[in-house]
Structures are given as structure tokens and as C-alpha cells.
Design goal:
Layout: H1 27-62, E1 64-65, E2 68-69, H2 74-102, H3 108-132, H4 144-156, H5 161-173
Helix pairs in contact: 1-2, 1-3, 1-4, 2-3, 3-4, 3-5
């Protein structure tokens, strides 16, 4: 799956030797990068979900089928409402994670919850948006596929949903 909205690459440095004083980071920096990266992916997911939901609702308001706007069909309204509820919940969980991180608390349970809620809501919405857009949603010319690819990648970056759920479970069991 290609996500043209992100750049990735590999850099391999064979036989590179750095003096100990030139090595950046350590465990504390790694922890900070993991925390902020997880938070960034959760924020990216809520923003992406909000955008694709707005695009989808706008499309449903303008597309006619069977002599009616497709946005007037109750089943489609309910699908959008369900996605909006999941998005609002993900945003609230993300706000808690931001507060925990800013307060220098042990924020991992909140970060994991935010990552899971946001990335799962985004992926479900992006997948549904392709279908709600009908035939145009499946084409390369429309942006739906970009949101879907980004949402699927967000599910994996900085830990999968399963990994984060395990972390939450361990914290609750401790």
C-alpha cells in the first residue's frame, strides 16, 4: 500500500563508528519520541477523520440518485452519525492524553487509548467513505483512497492497536 502523503526511506550505515560522546539520545529521549510520536499519530488520525467526514457529508448533500439526494436516506445518515460519535469520543480521549503528557504524568495508558480510539475511528470512517462516495470513491482521481491509505498506516505507526491494548491491559492489571 503506497501512501503518497508521507515520505519514508531506509538509511543503512554499515561500519559506522561514533564516539560515545557523539551518540544522541538514550532511554529518556527514546521514551519522549515514542510518547510524542504516538500523540502525533492520534492527532493526525482525528484530523484526517474530521476532514474525510466533512467531505463525505458534503458529497452526500449534493449527489442525487433515484431522484433524491442520497444524503436524505436514513441509513446513510446513521452511518455518518455513528462515525461522528466515534470521532468525538476519540477527540475527547486525545484531549486527556495531551493533558496527561503536558502534566508530566505517566501518560502511556492515556496515549495508548488515544492512539487506539483515533486510528480505529479514522480507518473505519475512511473505509466507509470510499463506499459512501460510490463509484467515484474507488477511483484514483478522488482523494478517498489517500485518506484510507493514511488511516491504515496510522494504525501501524508507533504500535499496532493490539500492542496498545496490551499496554492498557498491563497497566490496569498492575
Amino acid at each position: 500500500m503506497v501512501d503518497v502523503t508521507r515520505s519514508f526511506g531506509k538509511l543503512r550505515l554499515d561500519a559506522l563508528q561514533l564516539p560515545a560522546g557523539r551518540v544522541l539520545g538514550g532511554p529518556q529521549l527514546e521514551h519522549a519520541i515514542a510518547c510524542h510520536g504516538t500523540l502525533a499519530i492520534a492527532a493526525d488520525s482525528t484530523g484526517g477523520a474530521d476532514t474525510i467526514l466533512a467531505l463525505t457529508v458534503e458529497y452526500l448533500k449534493t449527489r442525487e440518485q433515484f431522484g433524491r439526494l442520497i444524503g436524505s436516506f436514513q441509513a446513510l445518515k446513521h452511518r455518518c452519525a455513528d462515525h461522528k460519535m466515534a470521532l468525538v469520543a476519540a477527540e475527547a480521549i486525545l484531549d486527556d492524553a495531551v493533558s496527561s503528557t503536558a502534566a508530566d504524568q505517566e501518560a502511556w495508558p492515556d496515549l495508548s487509548a488515544a492512539k487506539v480510539a483515533a486510528s480505529e475511528a479514522y480507518a473505519a470512517l475512511a473505509q466507509d467513505a470510499v463506499q459512501l462516495h460510490g463509484g467515484i470513491g474507488f477511483t484514483w482521481e478522488h482523494v478517498c483512497h489517500l485518506f484510507l491509505k493514511r488511516a491504515k498506516l496510522n494504525q501501524s505507526l508507533f504500535g499496532s492497536t493490539g500492542w496498545h491494548l496490551d499496554q492498557i491491559g498491563r497497566q490496569l492489571a498492575a
